[in-house]
Amino acid sequence: MGSVKFDRKFLTDFNNSSKREFIETNDLGAYCSSTLAGVNTRKYHGTFVVRQPQIDSHSYVLLNVLHEVAEIHDRVYELGVHQYSFTADPKGFVFQDSFELAKIPTWIYEIDKHKIKKEIQFTPNKNQLLIKYTLIKGDNIRFGVRPFSSFRRIHKLRTVDASDIEVGTVENGISYKLEEHYDRLHIQTSIPNEFLGNGNWHYQAEYLEELNRGYDFKEDLYSVGLMSFDLKKDEPVVISISTQEERVEGINAEFNKVLKDKPVLDSLEAYLEKAADQFISKTEDHGVEIGAGYHWFGRWGRDTFLALPGLTLYRDNPQPEVCKNVLKTMLKDLKGGLLTNIGVGANAQYNSADASLWFFWALQEYADATGDYIETWKDFKKEIVHILDNYKTGTLFNIHMKENGLLYGGQKDIALTWMDAIVDGVPVTPRSGYVVELNALWYHAICFSLELAGKSGDHQFVDKWSAIPKKLKPAFKDMFWDEKRGYLADVCEENSKDWSFRPNQTFATALKYSICDEEMSKSVLTKVKDKLLTSRGLRTLSQDDEKYIGIYQGDQKTRDNSYHQGIVWPWLLGHFTKGYLSLFGKSAVDLLSEIYQGFENELYSYGIGTIAEIYDAEPPFKAKGTISQAWSVAELIRIKALIKQHQNIK
Fold first, then answer.
1. Span 161-198, pLDDT tens digits
2. Is there a single domain that holds both residue 46 and residue 129?
3. CA distance 293 to 301
4. Which of 273, 420, 495, 628 is the most exposed place for a label (fewest CB within 10 A)?
């Protein structure tokens, strides 16, 4: 396929280029992201967005925009783009000649017979963004950058409340912050520059995607002034943006070295590999984490475990130690058998019935990948026993095991599974009682733990737990299976069953220790294929259901009402693939390979070079939600590996 490229015709069409977003990250959780047009359309966009651990565990926008200006033949050209009063002004996108993501985001601007190349990348293991400008055609020019800042948490917007902003001087640059508790922002150039300090506020910049999503969308930004320098033919200038003063000597060579070490992006596999790295980050206080999705999702327990195998174990170069470190990080917050839904430490929230159960799946994938079953039992036995005992005897939210071995739990007013949307205090998809995937995961967790204990010679554990799966499996079939319908109920109570046709039953067919027999699995997966499968993932509800909603749009309430009522999720393809391959052989390979390869088109459509969170459930299956979602990327990586494994076996 080659690298992802856009030409002048596309880029100068604002309706197109302002709807495509790029993201570049480092391994500390920082990112640089905006639209290809250069206009920020979300409050989450920013040139330099970093964590501020001295405040909390969230990300903060320190530099919203680095606005570029070129002076050519005594005429000033604004390369930046801002949105005010529903108008893009200035319109720097009209000078864009090309964009390419071959290694890092790269633009070519063409202005009055001059061409300027702009490249963006982070320095590894450091909160430092490097932006390189190269005059590749034309006579020497004067070039300038004007920083615009808000210094605020990514979920908030700033209206003027900062004053007496002091701008300090550092080597070839400046430093400043808008409030005392933040890191200072350091902007330095690789050559001397002239700084014109004419700081002022720019009021009511607009983020139109926030308006479309029903949120506040106007913000006040502060610009400290203009840094300008001579840009000479084939003599690049690198700008360093950092939370500390940097040495600028040799920074051009450093930029080139970092770039040289990066792989060329020329296939879907290569882009997924790059995207996978964007979700794994090191923190000062909490260990190695998985971010659930850009831009607004932080660390989620469920998402971490579901994405972890694909992000670490199924890669071209597997990273089992990273997988193990993330598992250990998440277990730090284990409490009452529950792992966190969101939050860390004192801010942890435990409103998830399935995060602890998905932990067993991720751990099983780790153990199978490494073959270290005895070591895994040794390292994780304490937590395994803790979770199983609490789920058996009872923990928060009425989660407990019944006499027949089935897992029961939940409350009418709380959404505890991955279908967690709530509107006006009421879950959109009520799922309290006996939940199909929770019981499938519960069975798998016990069986896998017995495998580890058995291989480790832990007879006490085996004696305590070995009888439960034997009664749990037939109880599951009695509770959830309907021979006539040929599929599994989604949720059951003692006297009622929800027969809404949803993808949650897929998990029961695809786990290593499947609670379904082969006949059940084949029937379920055949019906899932016919009723839920699309080219972008599985629908969350059958189209023939009166609750079905096919398009994700509107304000938060409207969107939440549709989130799991039909909308397509790519990550569900991973478990469908696992089950379908094992049961349907060659026909499964052909079908799934076609779906996998079809995601090449998505590298161009929304988040450039990555895969979105969700898609509309009706053609053309338009990408929605976050521009880059961990479990979407992870499960596509796993799908590719599963197909390859199956082809090798056959």
1. 888 899 999 999 999 999 999 999 999 999 999 999 99
2. yes
3. 13
4. 495
The model's confidence at residue 649, banded by pLDDT at 50, 70 and 90, is: low
Residue 456 · residue 390 · CB < 8 Å? no
Model confidence, pTM: 0.97
Residue after which a domain boundary falls, among 260, 291, 310: 260
* Domain CATH code at residue 204: 2.70.98
**Which of the listed residues 242, 260, 278 is the one where a domain comes to its end?**
260
Q: Does 294 lie in the same domain as 166?
A: no
What beta strand segments (E) does 477-612 contain?
Answer: 481-482, 487-488, 491-493, 496-498, 533-534, 537-539, 568-569
Closest by CA to 2, choosing from 100, 99, 108, is 100
* 353 confidence band (pLDDT: 50, 70, 90): very high
Q: Look up tokens 């040799």; give the residue.
A: 250
How many domains does the chain contain in total? 2
Q: Helix 572-598 crosses helix 518-531 at what angle (to 10 degrees)?
A: 50
Give the strand order in the sheet containing 496-498.
Answer: 434-435, 491-493, 496-498
535 shares a domain with 569: yes
Cβ proximity of 134 and 116 under 8 Å: yes
Q: Are residues 252 and 272 in the same domain?
A: no
Q: Is the pLDDT of residue 253 over 80?
A: yes
Q: Give yes or no: residues 359 and 228 share one domain.
A: no
Q: Are 397 and 341 in contact (CB under 8 A)?
A: no
| In contact, 323 and 341? CB cutoff 8 Å | no
3-class secondary-structure state, position 35? strand
Whether the CB-CB separation of 168 and 237 falls below 8 Å is answered with no
Q: Does residue 332 share a domain with residue 256?
A: no
Structure confidence at residue 383 as a pLDDT band (50, 70, 90): very high
- Is a pLDDT exceeding 90 seen at residue 211? yes
Tokens found for residue 554? 């509107």
H or E segment to which residue 379 belongs: helix 373-393
Q: Going edge to edge, which strands form the sheet with 21-25?
A: 21-25, 31-35, 46-51, 59-63, 152-153
Best CA proximity match to 603, nearest among 293, 265, 290: 265
Q: Which domain holds residue 536?
A: 268-649
* Each residue's pLDDT tens digit, 416-428: 999 999 999 999 9
Asked if 241 and 302 sit in the same domain, the reply is no
Q: Does residue 650 register a pLDDT over 90?
A: no
Q: What is the CATH number of the domain that holds 464?
A: 1.50.10.10
Interatomic CA distance for residues 443 and 464, integer angstroms:
15
* Judgement on whether residues 277 and 224 belong to the same structural domain of the protein: no
